[in-house]
Write a structure and sequence with these properties.
Elements (H helix, E strand, L loop, with lengths): L1 E8 L6 H4 L10 H5 L10 H4 L5 E4 L11 H9 L3 E4 L4 H10 L3 E3 L11 E5 L4 E4 L4 E4 L5 H8 L3 H5 L4
Parallel strand pairs: 1-2, 2-3, 3-4
Antiparallel strand pairs: 1-5, 5-6, 6-7
Amino acid sequence: MIIKGKVHKFGNNINTDDIIAAKYLVSTDEKELGRHCMENIAPDFSGRVGKGDIIVAGKNFGCGSSREHAPRALKGCGISAVIAQGFAGIFFRNSINVGLPFLQLSETDKINEGDLLEIDLAEGLIKNLTTNQTFKTEPFPGFLEEIIKKGGLMNWVRRDA
């Protein structure tokens, strides 16, 4: 699976309340959540995101409370993947559940806001088309890629139903 999009850069410890504020947890609609994505730390974020864009962040992305709403909000505003130096364990699980791919990369400091990236999940390659750099990370396991392609865990489980 190939993903291509523009980078939106964030730092360390982006928590689930930064991604989607608790006051919006009354909805599970991805588009509605997406309209409010990151508004506490970047009020104009959802208006700047194009379909397929990518978040690049530092350490401990998705920390905080356990809410599936966070990756749903990211998907709902158009984010197609998250690359970070590290992820909170619960964000990892919730991202799989909703079908949002994520990759861990220690060199996120070499990727800038607005860069154009191309991600090959199966090969674990991240190409920065703006700077002509290529980064290698762990390939996305095949079964997780299947879950992502189906749009999340529940859709994957229903695939044969």
